[in-house]
Amino acid sequence: MTFGDDQISIAVIGTGGVGHHFLSQLAPVQGRFPKTRLVLISRSNKTLLVENAYKSLSLETWEKDLTESQTPAATTNEIIRFLKGPPGKAILVDNTSSQDIANAYPEFLRWGISVVTPNKKAFSGPLNLWREICESSYAPTKDKISQGLIYHESSVGAGLPIISTLKDLIDTGDEVQRIEGVFSGTMSFLFNNFAPVDGKGGKWSEEVKKAKDAGFTEPDPRDDLNGVDVARKLVILARIAGLDVAGTDAFPVQSLIPGELEDVKSAEEFMQRLPEFDIRMDDVKNEAMLEGYVVRFVGSIDVGKKALKVGLEKFERGSPIASLKGSDNIISFYTKRYGTSPLTVQGAGAGGAITAMGVTADLIKVLQRIS
To answer: Cα–Cα distance between 316 and 246 in angstroms, integer?
Structure first.
């Protein structure tokens, strides 16, 4: 297939779990939008570039082609120069968690290159970066129509429509008062098995090991247990809701890492020593059970009070949060319009294929707007 001046070039950074799944989902998108062409695939150590400005990389052989490529990993400046060269429009799909790439989003956007990403760091990091991204991206109220669009639904809910739901509430004039829920598929899996409503459940260290073995945690589970992932998601939603939250260190975030294990050198040593501290989590679970509750790891935003919080909370056994299954997330929006019956979004909130689906859906939204 060849392309004309109305082509849309797509560059993909990151070919790991989410990136690999995304590329496997791209073929139907290209079938639906025949003017799109995949021009660049980059990972940490090398880059695959299209050789002809009017051709597209093969989705059938990209892994082999990337492995055989002799081109080193491209810098963000190199990617910008590459994308702004050919005629037509361009989209960057960033499937990494790189802060350096996130820092370059404003530059991409100013050059009219739209950005689609699940990268939380761009939107939960320094407040000035968030503001610069907002200022650099297209909005209907702006005079500049050459700026790129930015979509990052998967930065909060994987494939769940969390950000779009919040934006719809705001854009239609509703008053968002409070947001609360289980924002981590990892934490959901852990507590649904450690402290189920039937009062059973295994030892904390055993459940962490099960979650790690099942791929629900990061290679080092401390990256989940420290609560920062949930805190990042709260920062993103709070900023969208209009709060100028400085970052994840601006509000209480409870870590479930025993203080004695925070500085151990490896994930292996952490897992070996974690059983020493099972009694602490047992005490938390048993105290809740005696009161008729179960304990869950949740995040909450009180918009009116400008207060955010991440940590353990007790819930009645029949409540929606207590009744979650597997690795499901649940996020409830309490608003003036919805009153005491919140608008609730629930479903799987983790997994490479699910997160990639959210990225792919965002790509389709961008294509619908710029085609």
So the answer is: 33
